[in-house]
Amino acid sequence: MGGTFDPIHHGHLVAAEEARWQFGLDSVVFVPTGQPWQKPFGVTPAEDRYQMTLIATASNPAFTVSRLEIDHEGPTYTVDTLRRLRDQQDENTRLFFITGADAVLQILTWKEPDQVLALAEFIAATRPSFDLDRLVNQVPGAAGRVHRMDIPALAISSSDIRARVARGAPIQYLVPDGVARYIQQHGLYRTAPGPDPPAPPPGSGTQ
Ligand code: NAP
Q1: Domain 2-185, what fold?
Q2: How far apart are CA 37 and CA 183, in angstroms?
Q3: Scanning 2, 56, 82, 97, which has its CA 20 to 30 A from the CA of 119?
Q4: pLDDT per residue over 124-166, tens digit each?
Q5: Structure pTM?
């Protein structure tokens, strides 16, 4: 499962467990993104995002967290991550990349989109109203390789959690208790956040 996880919340965890169950996965590896060079607004240091992901996933024996992207110097691309994960697996292993549907809709702008879709099947976690057919209709190679998974708990969002912390609103029940404690102890998200940058339209260049 790929994501910035800034911070990880119960929507991500519900999505991971639902994917494990729906697709019969042996395990779910959380891969926090490394240097998010394509985001003009500040992102919390990778080590903090990694630690929060470790805390959030500790109680599920089927969940692990990978440092693959955060230990990588410079920009990270999903195609490289998938190649490295693929190299670690038996060739018959089916690899699924779970992430948010908004991110999946941008695949055409990613590095080597054809390879991305060839290396793994995608599980696009989304709120029930999301129109994923746009992707399957617009992206060659997406048909049969991208699976939609409705997760009502994804009404929870990292940007909302950051904004809540900045204005002193509670985040209890939105994130695991250990993550809320980590945010408090490390003073994360206390300053008012800038808006999330708009996602570039498909075809506007490689991210
Ligand atoms: P994002 O733009 O920060 O997030 C887009 C939307 O997807 C947000 O609503 C976000 O909600 C949601 N989301 C993100 N990760 C999710 C997850 N694991 N489960 C459910 N919803 C999720 O996207 P991002 O986090 O930066 O990137 C997502 C993945 O795409 C990462 O693995 C990243 O490396 C990959 N990516 C690759 C390239 C490339 O290879 N060139 C370019 C862009 C992204 P929350 O904010 O609540 O998480």
Answers
A1: Rossmann fold (3.40.50)
A2: 23
A3: 56
A4: 999 877 777 777 777 777 788 999 999 999 999 999 999 999 9
A5: 0.92
